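Ticket #4471: structure output looks truncated?

Reporter: J.K.
Steps to reproduce: submitted the chain below (152 residues) through the standard prediction queue, then opened the result file.
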Amino acid sequence: MENNFEEKMEKLNTPNTDFVKHQEVLKIGMINARKSARIGIVFILIPMVLVILAYLKIKLLIHWDFFDKLQRFVSNTNQTSFSTWVSHIILIGLPILAIIINLLAITHFYVNKQNKELIITIRYHLKNLIVLLISASLLVIVFIYVLLLSQI
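Returned output as attached by the reporter:
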């Protein structure tokens, strides 16, 4: 019985450990991490200011004419289609672009055709991760705001 087991073990194919080259592969990001963080900050700056101003208007009950015009511009009531599209691009499109650009900067993809593997590496860049989190939170805030407006 022991001899049979030993024969089976000897006939087993051993795994190929030749592919430890994933650390040796030159990982070039699709976009420079520093530039993408700066671009992401610019893209989320405008929506963040709009959300902060809306929050201050609601919490502090400030009724300045500037805030009212800004709120009318962002909301869909009695507007032309151009201004509606501009407000949607500012509040939704720019944070999505910031997320895409920063994800491309911190992720690296490598395809090993020999073993049919896709290796995804995520590099740790604090600025890019912060921009990703702020962009995602802005999108969540805008979608919750839209959902609450549709309920009323």
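Triage note (M.O.): checked the attachment and the full token line is present. Residues 31-151 form one domain.
Status: closed, working as intended.
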